[in-house]
């Protein structure tokens, strides 16, 4: 796999030094987990996701391939697939710069590393699912707090892709951040461009937000 390259933040809203330093520290912490610790975290995460009411009726769910020490959602995926749930992976949109498309994720699907070194399926207009047609989106966080503040990698891909949820919230899928519980911090600023989360699920518990 190609070396991971951190995406750049919004050009009009550059990260502050404090956010950059916090991101660096939290990423280092999760990269230090060994295989057994990551596997145990994935199993506990799966249990908490299975109990999450936001997912009980979901049939089309976007997920991600863990990278850079991110908590692994595949234990949940393996169980949910047996219930007929369909999963999709984010794909860098080839036309709309800085946004994501979502392509089916199934056993045997061919994956190719994108410009950040992250494997993704091929972009296909016929197979991809529009962001508004997803029931839920599970995506990784670098940090979060109990008020709904969150810290991502700084690229803004999910914020751009789901910006429509501010205008038409009824069309929005459930946006659920995933993280190791130690990635919770005391307080993060909620930036104007942040798309609100419905919840954060970790290996320890679930945090729900009022909106």
TrEMBL record:
GO terms for molecular function: 5-formyltetrahydrofolate cyclo-ligase activity; ATP binding; metal ion binding. Its EC number is 6.3.3.2. It catalyses: (6S)-5-formyl-5,6,7,8-tetrahydrofolate + ATP = (6R)-5,10-methenyltetrahydrofolate + ADP + phosphate. The keyword Cell membrane does not apply. Pfam families: 5-FTHF_cyc-lig. Keywords: ATP-binding, Ligase, Magnesium, Metal-binding, Nucleotide-binding. InterPro entries: FTHF_cligase, FTHF_cligase-like_sf, NagB/RpiA_transferase-like. ATP binds at residues 19-23, 150-158. Its cofactor is Mg(2+). Substrate binds at residues 65, 70. GO terms for biological process: folic acid-containing compound biosynthetic process; tetrahydrofolate interconversion. Belongs to the 5-formyltetrahydrofolate cyclo-ligase family. PANTHER family: 5-FORMYLTETRAHYDROFOLATE CYCLO-LIGASE (PTHR23407:SF1), ATPASE INHIBITOR/5-FORMYLTETRAHYDROFOLATE CYCLO-LIGASE (PTHR23407). This is 5-formyltetrahydrofolate cyclo-ligase. It comes from Marinobacter maroccanus. The lineage of its organism: Bacteria, Pseudomonadati, Pseudomonadota, Gammaproteobacteria, Pseudomonadales.
């Amino acid at each position: 796999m190609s070396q991971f390259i951190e995406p750049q933040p919004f050009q009009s809203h550059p990260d502050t030094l404090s956010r950059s330093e916090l991101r660096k520290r939290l990423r280092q912490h999760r990269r230090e987990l060994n295989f057994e610790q990551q596997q145990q975290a994935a199993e506990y995460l799966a249990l908490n996701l299975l109990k999450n009411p936001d997912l009980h009726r979901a049939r089309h769910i976007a997920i991600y391939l863990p990278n850079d020490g991110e908590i692994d959602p595949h234990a949940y995926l393996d169980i949910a697939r047996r219930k007929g749930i369909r999963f999709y992976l984010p794909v860098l949109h080839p036309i709309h710069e800085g946004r994501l498309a979502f392509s089916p994720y199934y056993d045997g699907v061919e994956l190719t590393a994108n410009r950040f070194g992250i494997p993704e399926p091929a972009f296909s207009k016929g197979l991809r699912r529009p962001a508004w047609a997803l029931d839920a989106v599970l995506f990784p966080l670098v940090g979060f707090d109990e008020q709904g503040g969150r810290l991502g990698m700084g690229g803004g891909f999910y914020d751009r892709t789901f910006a429509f949820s501010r205008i038409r919230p009824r069309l929005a899928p459930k946006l659920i951040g995933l993280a190791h519980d130690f990635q919770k911090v005391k307080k993060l600023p909620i930036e104007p461009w942040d798309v609100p989360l419905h919840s954060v699920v970790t290996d320890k518990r679930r945090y729900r937000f009022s909106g």
